[in-house]
Design brief:
Layout: H1 6-21, H2 25-30, E1 32-40, E2 43-46, H3 48-55, E3 62-74, E4 80-93, E5 100-114, E6 117-129
């Protein structure tokens, strides 16, 4: 088996945030490995069901845009890879005139080939703008 191309791996990251912004909670959860962990808002969500359940509690009046930049891939094997990137988030709520900048995060997604597709084994990040306290 050969190593995957960068576009194949980057696509997992892009699909995750597209699903998040489009509120396609099922698609976002399906991108997680069966035992995958997403470190989100100080908690570890483990597995697809936990991710989907957490996303279903999001405020329906809140709209988001996640912009991914500076993406690179490292530690690639035929079945695992690490994708690093910056993610800048904006939100818009009903009644507001313009989007609000939420911050820029330094992100790491560890991926694993599972059931014929690349899935997120671990997803974590730290805020760099503004810096975390």
């Amino acid at each position: 088996m050969s190593n995957p191309g960068i576009n194949t791996l980057a696509s997992v990251v892009y699909q995750f945030f597209a699903g998040l912004d489009n509120r396609d909670n099922k698609a976002v959860a399906a991108l997680m490995a069966r035992d995958g962990v997403w470190v989100r808002q100080g908690s570890e969500l483990q597995g697809q069901a936990a991710v989907q359940k957490a996303l279903e509690t999001r405020d329906p009046q809140r709209y988001t845009a996640h912009i991914v930049t500076n993406l690179w891939v490292e530690n690639v094997t035929p079945t695992t890879a690490r994708v690093r990137f910056y993610m800048t988030a904006y939100e818009m709520r009903s009644g507001l005139e313009k989007p609000e900048f939420l911050g820029t995060r330094d992100c790491v997604d560890d991926l694993r080939l599972e059931e014929g597709g690349w899935r997120i084994l671990r997803k974590e990040s730290r805020r760099i703008m503004p810096p975390e306290a």
